[in-house]
Amino acid sequence: MVFTVQVTAQPPRSASARPGPSTGLGADAGLVSGEAVELEIRAARLGSRVLALLIDIAAQFVVAVLLVIVAGIVLDSFTDNRPPDEALLTGLQTVGVVLLLVGYPVSWELLSNGRTPGKLAVGLRVVRNDGGRVGFRQSLTRSLVGVAVEWPGLVLPLLTWAVSVTVMMTDPRGRRLGDLAAGTMVIHDRSPAGFGYVPAMVPPLIGWARSLDLTRLDDGLALAVRQLLGRSATLTDPARLRLARSLWAEVAAVTSPPPPPGTPDWACLAAVHAERHNRARQRLARTRSVSTALWPELAPAAEAATPELTWPVRPAAPAPSSPPAPVTPMLAATPQGGPDR
């Protein structure tokens, strides 16, 4: 008996499986590299795209004023200050409108790798759906569709504006009608600022952390823990302790067993965060080893050997302004790069 096993480098994912705009700093563009690794790239949403559009409209207005001045000077030189022909004026106006509404975005996107001045100021970029560089056909298609039914909208402006906004808000990647027609999308070209120093596992809590049940600790609550720990050095003690106590109450309600008596809230949060990160690394190592065994070409030779995973334990540093406690001094250390940035 012969069994056939089909292995796919990129399994299909439904739109609902992708993280939406509520994931904060998470990747939601759905772009996958050639090694079947999802890239941490965020899709641009309505707010940032409208801001980029407003900047581009202002730039187009400046270009329009310059074109009118140049056209007036040229006409005066060729007509000897006589009134120009009406048909000539109509033709020049048509050419100017086409250059502003179509030539402006197409030329900028081709010359600046998918960036217009507005997108460059906001930190956006137009790419193909597969993440590649946008070409002339895609840029021209999205510009023509945009002029016709989006902005300025030559066909039923109010209705098409409402449809465009609805499409952008409901599409998983925030694409507009022009993007859907051209096979493109707009992504954030700048990565958000990373978190600061995150207190690591306290050695006396390693045994307790290994016994924790973290199945009910969802990603949202874990991200809140990560953010609070990363900003601990910028908070003062009354507010810092109050936030830690409130957040630990939420975490303690979904984890078990309880920590050793007398353990500060900050140490408990740091231990939970470090243990969750360590288990995620172990799952990733197991998945990578299985993928490498089934399809060695997907993983480089350097990733085939996964290093032994241990809890990140840093030596404690004395805190100048905090009261002495068995574990809290390390929470006031100078911010630096965390182990899981």
TrEMBL record:
Keywords of this protein's UniProt record, alphabetized? Membrane, Transmembrane, Transmembrane helix
Ranges of Low complexity compositional bias? 11-22
* Keyword Acyltransferase recorded: no
Q: Which residues form the RDD domain?
A: 44-183
Subcellular location per the Swiss-Prot or TrEMBL entry: Membrane
Could you tell me which Pfam families the record lists for this protein? RDD (PF06271)
Q: What parts of the sequence cross the membrane?
A: 50-75, 87-106, 151-170
Signal peptide range equals none
Q: List the membrane topology term(s).
A: Multi-pass membrane protein
Kindly report the protein's main subcellular placement as a broad class: membrane
**InterPro entries, per the entry:** RDD
Which stretches are tagged as biased composition: Pro residues?
Answer: 315-327
Is Methyltransferase among the key words of this record?
Answer: no
Q: Where is this region: Disordered?
A: 1-22, 306-341
Q: What name does UniProt use for this protein?
A: RDD family protein
